[in-house]
Amino acid sequence: MDTAVPNTHNLAKTITDKQNKYQELANEICGMWKQNTAQVIPLVIPSTAVIPKSLSQSLKRLNPHPNTYTQIQKSVILGTCSIVRNFFKLQIRPSSLLLLITYHRIGECFTAEAEK
């Protein structure tokens, strides 16, 4: 099993890379085990936990438990949160809480800071 958790913008590239990477292995398995076909089924989900159509199609081919989609999303979201938490290593002190509020407008980005 090879895992990948790409961002949404490079999802298609990651799926193609995984298929190409393991196609040679699938061909080798066909020869070793005297099989007619071996299929590479990529299971790639972006770090935002949005399930792409390709994942739904791949999972349908495997016929998983109906709860699998939810468990995959939960796992990816928790993993992404863990990565972000470790990156920032936040230590919030009640006496000095800094709030960052970012307002996005077309072509502009404003940041307001307030201390409590």
Verbal overview:
By secondary structure, the protein is of the alpha+beta class. The protein has one domain (8-90). Helices cover 46% and strands 14% of the residues. The chain is built from 3 helices and 2 strands. It has helices at 11-32, 53-62, 68-88; strands spanning 98-105, 108-115. A two-stranded antiparallel ribbon has the order 1-2. The termini are far apart. Residues 93-116 have low confidence and may be disordered.
The level of helicity is 40-55%
Helix/strand order: HHHEE
- Backbone structural class: alpha+beta
Number of strands: 2
Amino-to-carboxy terminus distance: 48 Å
Beta strand %: 5-15%
Task: Tally the helices.
Answer: 3
